[in-house]
UniProtKB/TrEMBL annotation:
Gene3D superfamilies: Divalent-metal-dependent TIM barrel enzymes (3.20.20.150). SUPFAM superfamilies: Xylose isomerase-like (SSF51658). It comes from the Eukaryota. This is Uncharacterized protein. InterPro entries: Xyl_isomerase-like_sf.
């Protein structure tokens, strides 16, 4: 996707459909973004940033067993996490060296590190913003 966008000049790529799934020929599982292939998802976001992509990002998932609103919120959260992680990769100049050296292990280590930082950041934010549990209300009123 990003390569095609770069070849077209970046501004010609209008929208990118984000989802995930198991790689089966002629199948689209429509799963949540980065749920199966987080490394590939981060690479996609990284290259979208490299070409200065300004188009639309949208989700094409099929929530059959989950609340569709919660799934959409999760997809948005994941894209924001991966966007920040990709910015960190670029800002620290971490990816260019491992790509130039074809260092697969180094690439995996860097990706795991930046994704772990984003997971920690999200957990801290969820703890701060988490509403009190129902039993907490009863305790507060006594």
């Amino acid at each position: 996707v990003a390569f095609g966008g770069q070849r077209l000049g970046g501004s010609k790529l209008f929208g990118v459909q984000l989802n995930d799934g198991y790689t089966r020929l002629a199948a689209e599982d429509g799963m949540m973004f980065a749920s199966v292939h987080p490394h590939m998802a981060l690479e996609l976001i990284y290259y979208l940033q490299k070409i200065k992509y300004q188009g639309h990002l949208y989700f094409d998932t099929f929530p059959q067993r989950t609340d569709p609103v919660k799934e959409a919120e999760y997809n948005i959260l994941r894209v924001k996490q991966f966007w920040r992680a990709a910015k960190r990769l670029d800002r620290l100049g971490l990816m260019e060296g491992v790509l130039r050296r074809h260092d697969a292990l180094g690439s995996l280590e860097i990706v795991e590190e930046v994704l772990a930082v984003e997971r920690q950041r999200s957990r801290r934010k969820q703890v701060v913003e988490a509403p009190p549990l129902p039993e907490d209300h009863a305790t507060e009123q006594q």
